[in-house]
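For homework, think about our next protein:
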Amino acid sequence: MRKPMNINSVAEFLKKLKIEQAISGKIKLLVAVSGGVDSVVLLHILSGLNDICTLGVAHCNFGLRGQNSDFDELFVLELAQALNLPFYTTHFETLDYAKANTLSIQMAARQLRYDSCHVATIKNQLCYTP
């Protein structure tokens, strides 16, 4: 597996994408989208780069906020559909996982998200940088 890129700016990220695209051809990226402003804006920016990359959208439903977690998932699903992008979602019992592994909820959710995105990249031949 490739090492994650260290990205200090949008310009640097775009430059690295274009270099990678020139070397490897069209890049296939998995974008983890929570439904929050940051990840939604990132998805919109990347979706405008369809000449150099193909996207997949991943969402993790950690089940930590009841119905609001489900609303976030539905929002991200509808966004992916509106952008005509494949959507991958995973549901977790985050509290149980955190307790079983003696982790904080935040660390458990991070580990579950990274593992889930890693599996999705392998199954769908995509790249993902946590």
Summary: Residues 28 and 125 are 7 Å apart (CA to CA). The chain has a mean pLDDT of 87.
